[in-house]
Write a structure and sequence with these properties.
By secondary structure, this protein is mainly beta. 10% of the residues lie in helices and 40% in strands.
């Protein structure tokens, strides 16, 4: 009788654990024939100037970007044309809008850009860095932060 219950329970458990959030770990195959997978992160913080998080190039390895987070405060003057860009990826530059409002605006700061990629995005070539560029917010901004994460393989 127990054997008849165990198989359906294991099946249900497998279904619950196979959602999109579990589709790919930071290192999808740590024992690849290409060598060990190495998780990496980069972060930068500033105020009014651009901030950059770089997943650096490693000789003989491909860099993968699995996600990034960018946030910043409003500046003295609104800037509706600022963007977060990601360079060095296989598909070319990726652009994500990040308009800012005037610091005196009655609404809160722009919602952060929080992107995760499944599957992770490869660099355009072996030994190529991937760079997440946060925009210069301008005078009056008090905080800007960018963080990127991925792995080498």
């Amino acid at each position: 009788m127990r054997h008849k219950l165990i198989a359906p329970l294991l099946f249900v458990l497998a279904l619950l654990c196979s959602g999109a959030a579990n589709a790919q770990n930071a290192c999808p195959d740590p024992y690849s024939a290409r060598g060990l997978c190495t998780p990496i992160t980069a972060t930068a913080t500033g105020t009014t100037a651009a901030v950059v998080a770089t997943l650096p190039a490693v000789a003989g390895k491909t860099t993968y970007l699995c996600g990034f987070y960018y946030t910043g405060t409003n500046a003295t003057a609104a800037n509706t044309t600022t963007s977060v860009t990601v360079t060095g990826t296989i598909g070319g530059t990726m652009t994500f809008g990040f308009p800012t409002l005037a610091a005196a605006a009655t609404v809160q700061n722009t919602i952060p850009v929080d992107e995760g990629f499944i599957p992770c995005v490869a660099a355009s070539a072996i030994n190529t860095a991937i760079v997440v560029n946060g925009p210069a917010l301008g005078a009056g901004a008090t905080q800007a932060t960018v963080t990127a994460w991925g792995y080498y393989l």
